[in-house]
Amino acid sequence: MFNGLADRLSKVFDRLTGRGIITESVMDETAREIKIALLEADVALPVVKDFIAKVKEKAVGAEVIKSIQPAQMVIKIVHDELVALLGESTPFNWESNARNVLLMVGLQGSGKTTSSAKIALKLKKEGKKVLLASLDTYRPAAQEQLADLGKTYELDVLPIVMGEKPLEITKRALNEAKLGLYDILILDTAGRLHIDEEMMQEVAAIRDLSEPKETLLVVDALMGQDAVNVAREFKEKIGITGVVLTRIDGDSRGGAALSMRAVTGMPIQFLGVGEKADAVERFDAKRVADRILGMGDVVGFVETAMERVNQEDMQAQAMKMMSGNFDLNDLLVQLQQIDKMGDIKGMMKMIPGVAKFSKQIDQADVDNRLMKRQAAIILSMTPAERKNPDIIKASRKQRIAAGAGVKVEDVNKLLRSYEQMADVMKKLKKMGPFGMMSMMKKMKNMFNGPMNDGGFPPFKV
Ligand SMILES: Nc1nc2c(ncn2[C@@H]2O[C@H](COP(=O)(O)OP(=O)(O)O)[C@@H](O)[C@H]2O)c(=O)[nH]1
Ligand SMILES: [Mg+2]
Fold it and tell me: Which atom of ligand 1 is nearest to the CA of 108?
């Protein structure tokens, strides 16, 4: 899901990344573009308006930390607002040593039976004793469908008694759950193609008889805004405690997920991400927001960067790199900064515009430990050598290698890498927002082949 929205937002942020200070008119334009992206994703208009107003308010009021790109700050604001909009799921409040009923409701074909089995499997893995019962006496073979799922995934399912009515099955299931000391009884109800009075009355009767702890509405994400309308009606007529959004794996535009909490006030509890019984996720607003922004953990990056790295230093470094005066001292600082940040791959994915290449980054096989070895070599050099690597000839190389505990060959490799890197840095300025990525590709090629014995230097291919 969310692909269309992720693409659009990524374009909006790409345009923003090239700019320095974000003026109010740039922010207005950005807000307008985000608005269009959300509307095209089928998010309800009042929800969009409210969202945009909040983003603008925060962006104007935000104290943009001087060494972090303003664009990233805007992305962080949008991210945080998305998390707030999506809303967190709420933990189930099961009573211990009691028979807790989970009632599954929704339209026909929304995924109730599949979701019942998925949730049963999840709860069972968490150590709960779970009984499933199908109350769908309308659709042929509906009860068998649940029985089959039970067999496949080793879940307990109430045996079928032909001719029983839904309320009779409910009574038997409640009894069986009590006798069998089950923690949770999941009741899988029958749906209709559309909301009709008869179905609502039946579900209400089942609810009154079974007194559920949780009532989950199962809705198909592909329905978009209609899913939200269905949820609103079920909430009014039946009372639901949460929503299961299915077919997230399909190409829905995301409107249902984004509008659900704001319109209905109901938390999304689970996402159905496929047909198999393990294709379910507990809803995590932050993860979904990350996915929508398609750029890895931007918030994490900004926070980590602020915590660990001296921002002034980094900016000075960046300026120096751009100006083309890149010596071994700078390389050393770079290595140490990157080392401080932890996982390099993770860091690269957080750079706006670069996240799209996360597959390539994974393949680049970057290793932090090797950074430390390179740093050790530079640390064995005299200040004069670091400033002017040209003076490093044979005898100096031997001394440096001995000092760092490596071979002369390794010193040569580092020097060669540095020369190529310095060259790339000079060109970096011309590369635009994708400079980092292009640089990385060049580095990958640079360190290809025979240079890569014993894991040195840090980029393996
Ligand atoms: N791709 C995908 N298919 C799903 C998902 N959930 C359910 N389905 C499929 O949707 C169809 C209807 O599901 P079912 O559980 O029988 O719906 P019910 O009528 O509400 O009980 C089945 O073919 C399921 O395999 C999901 O999250 N992703
Ligand atoms: Mg069913």
Answer: 19
* Residue whose CA lies nearest to ligand 1 atom number 27: 272
Q: Verify whether ligand 1 is closer than 6 Å to residue 300 (CB atom).
A: no
Going by alpha carbons, the residue nearest to atom 3 of ligand 1 is 275
> How many CA atoms lie within 13 Å of 165's alpha carbon, on the beta-carbon side?
6
Residue ranges, the chain, pLDDT below 50: 64-67, 297-300, 303, 352, 365, 432-461
Sole residue written with tokens 């580092």: 414
* Domain extent for 158: 100-286
> What domain count does the chain have?
3
Ligand approaching nearest to the C-alpha of 108: 1
What pTM did the predictor assign? 0.67
Asked if residue 306 and residue 201 are part of one domain, the reply reads no
Q: Please, which residues have CB less than 5 A from ligand 2, an ion?
A: 112-113
- Residue 278 CB–ligand 1 contact under 6 Å: no
